[in-house]
Amino acid sequence: MKKAILFFLTFLFITRESIVAQRFLADVDSSFYIKDTVRPVIKRFANLRITGYIQPQFQVASANGIESYEGGSFSAHSQSRFMLRRARVKIEYALPSKTSGNPAAFFAFQVDGTERGVAVRDMFLKLFETRKNKFSFTAGLFGRPFGYEVNLSSAYREMPERGRMSQILMPRERDIGAMVSFEPMNKKNKLSNFKFDLGLFNGQGLTGSTDFDSRKDLISRVYCKPYELNDFSISGGLSFLNGGWKNGTKYVYKNGVGQNGDAIFIVDSTQANIDEIAPRRYYGADIQVKKEFKWGATEFRAEYWFGTQPGTSSTSTSPGVLPVANGNPLPTYIRHFNGAFFYFLQNIINEKHQLLLKYDWYDPNVKVKKQQIGKPGTNLTPADIKFATSGIGYIYHLNKQTRVILSYSMVSNEITAMPGFASQLSDNVFTCRLHFIF
């Protein structure tokens, strides 16, 4: 009977305390640092916490079977669907330090269960340096430390999905690797407002079961936490990724100019290209500005990426396995890309109502434009077409744990000479989502 009562009290404590989970992937919520003397009755469980959220939703597309980045493409004969976008449960454990109020170690395990199956999303261990409380080491499966949108948890992101560029270049956001972080925990430290991450990752993320070559991605990010001045705050960061993957063939296509002056892909078929590294380099910068009012807040976010992305003739998506067709490796296409995300968030009337505006674009090949794509002999494909998405949304907060999200995403594509892309596609999506977090 005592064990049953203890378990019940523990469940109530964990549930109540875990409403505020960490806002960013792989971060540790400071409210989780609980001393054994706070609640002696449940001190054996005080450092264990269970959090999670569920996102059932209904969507309507502007046409049947569209390719979409709003939760995945629609079935060939369908333009509406109910789906369980995410349903996640996360177990966290913090090992208290004997010398400070900060943890000595932190373990996290998160699973995602939907109608499409169950998959692991996080499984990592974070060790803290407890003498000066400045450094930590993370190893396992966790979020890549690149950019703001990629690391903002889906439990807190206002629009239903991350931008197209995030999903193509950083599919599923996480990867297996190890990372060192500099983040002074003492607020009196002059650098306590800064965080620096530096990590090595396999590169394939959750899109592959194992690393298909020995090349690793080096990812770093320096982030300035919100600097507050009265009701105004500003934060921002710089990110860098340097990696790549091995060419499976000797054929490597790069941007060039044809004899008639057209922008084309030119093939390099040097035998030495086999097993050479196709460069993958990203550069990113982001800023977040927020103004608080008695009745709510106004927030603006901007983020810009550019760099080099290896892919195939048909896609610029970062691969989880070596790209092949009929068992044979595919030629590598090197593209130079850029893209951005812009958010505007505004409370209206009070904190229960929030208006959302978002704009993002992804240009997979900045060396070519519009009618150049689709010309015979250029080797250009739909994978070189620029897409932009404008989104408008509304959130109604029923309570601290429950909200209703309504959004409409309008997608525009470059008008090209490519069959099927000589006009605007009909691929807009309306989403109605119920979001509950615990």
The name of the CATH topology is Porin
Overall helicity: under 10%
Gyration radius, to the nearest Å?
23 Å
Reading off the top of the CATH hierarchy, the class is best stated as Mainly Beta
**Approximately what portion of the residues adopt beta-strand conformation?**
over 45%
> How would you write the strand order of the largest sheet?
1-2-3-4-5-6-7-8-9-12-13-16-17-18-19-20
Please count the beta strands (DSSP E, at least 2 residues each).
20
Give the mean pLDDT. Answer: 91
Description:
A hairpin with a 6-residue loop joins strand 4 and strand 5. The chain contains 2 helices and 20 strands. With about 450 residues, it is mainly beta. The chain has a single domain (about 1-435), classed as Beta Barrel (Porin). The protein has helices spanning about 1-15, 165-170; strands at about 50-60, 80-95, 105-115, 115-130, 135-145, 175-180, 195-200, 215-230, 230-245, 250-255, 265-270, 275-295, 295-310, 325, 330, 330-350, 350-365, 385-395, 400-415, 430-435. The radius of gyration is 23 Å and the shape is globular. The strands form 2 sheets. It has a 16-stranded antiparallel barrel.
